[in-house]
Amino acid sequence: MNDDLLKKALRYRWLIFWILAFSYVLVYFHRLCPAVVALDMMRDLKAGGGLIGLLGAAYFYPYALMQLPAGLLSDSWGPRRTITLFFSVAFLGSLLLGLAPTLFWAIVGRTLVGLGVAMLFVPTMKILAEWFRVREFAFMTGILMAMGGIGSLSAASPLALLSSWIGWRMSFVVVGGFTLILGALVWIFVRDRPQDRGWPSPRGEQETGAPASIGLAEGVRTVISTLAFWPLAIWFFFDCAVFFSFGGLWGGPYLMQVYGFTKAQAGQILSMLAIGMIVGSPFLSFLSNNIFQARKPVMILSSAILLLLTGTLVFYTKDIPAVGLYLLCFGLGVFSSAVVVIGFTTTKELFPVQMAGTATGLVNLFPFAGGAVFQPVLGYVLEKHGRIAGAFTLAGYKQAFLILFLCGIITLAASMCLRETMEKRGKE
After folding, report:
1. Sorting pLDDT into bands at 50, 70 and 90, what band is 213?
2. Domains in the chain, ordered, with CATH?
3. pTM for this predicted structure
4. What is the rounded average pLDDT of the residues 209-224?
5. For every residue of the chain, which 3-state class applies, written as one string?
């Protein structure tokens, strides 16, 4: 009888996983969608580069701030309730963003979106830990990150086509509707643990061998007092500043204003960011686990390539051939976005398993803080250099990309200071 119940749990967990995975698609869509429609939003909301940068960054501030509360709510209130409630908030935010009469209300709407979707990743990690065995967890996380790549892909060419058809405003209203539907599916079908349906845990005897828990305050103190944590946090901050600044906002205007591409053409090029994420996540994981058998060399290599890519943007701003632009965006997808899988793995290995949630929540503040800081900074720089016929100048883009190049230098320096966690784990 128990075996039959276990088989039911093993089947049902896939329904739960795919509902959460498609929800994660929307998280990444909301994260990167302004890049394709930024010029349309600037026109309709009568906003300059600095203010549109603030609009793009309005997603990242609440997302970063909610990472620790996400863990607290997952533990106390439960992942299912947490995701459902906050996806309803994201629905309202997307609706408000699409219908916003002024820039102020658009910023409020995007802030609500960031607040709502911030509460998916950490609760999902908790659900996966309950429904999947330890040896399956890394594989499932990899699939989840690949689904995030699909979300990035949908924020490029598909959004460009949809916004050309029904406008950027109605596009956000439609996406808000999908957000609400997925929130309802989470409430109806997702359960926090197999025991909620009267089924045994797939983890079996591992339930009784769980290590003693560590309180949040003690966990936070331990993480922030660990010297090896800070190079990792700095690496996340500046690495993701590059990806979110270019891929999440200013890449679209750059391609349309410097190279004269249409919105659809720019969307096709930006879609390579997502392809890079989808391909890069398993590739870099394989490289780390099987070729280098280490984390640090992969992060150093990725950071060095990222520096070359940002250098290309600075020194060949208007001279990159079309094929080169596709390759550049693909490279950013692999070496600035997909590589965070290795970063999160390093974080998990740096601390005891019972502190993994706290450590992940804390380090996850930094990538979104990077996006929150640098999106408006680049917008300010672009605006400061003025416009010609309504478009930002080439000198403005060069100066903006110089900032990303400096971020690349700091990213590479931080990667060289990382502690090798896989080697430490292998000695235990």
Report:
1. low
2. 9-195+225-427 (1.20.1250.20)
3. 0.77
4. 68
5. CHHHHHHHHHHHHHHHHHHHHHHHHHHHHHHHCHHHHHHHHHHHCCCCHHHHHHHHHCCHHHHHHCHHHHHHHHHHCCHHHHHHHHHHHHHHHHHHHHHCCCHHHHHHHHHHHHHHHCCCHHHHHHHHHHHCCHHHHHHHHHHHHHHHHHHHHHCCHHHHHHHHHHHHHHHHHHHHHHHHHHHHHHHHHCCCCHHHHCCCCCCHHHHCCCCCCCCHHHHHHHHHCCCCHHHHHHHHHHHHHHHHHHHHHHHHHHHHHHCCCCHHHHHHHHHHHHHHHHHHHHHHHHHHHHHCCCCHHHHHHHHHHHHHHHHHHHHCCCCCCHHHHHHHHHHHHHHHHHCHHHHHHHHHHHCCHHHHHHHHHHHCHHHHHHHHHHHHHHHHHHHHCCEECCEECHHHHHHHHHHHHHHHHHHHHHHHCCCCHHHHHHHC
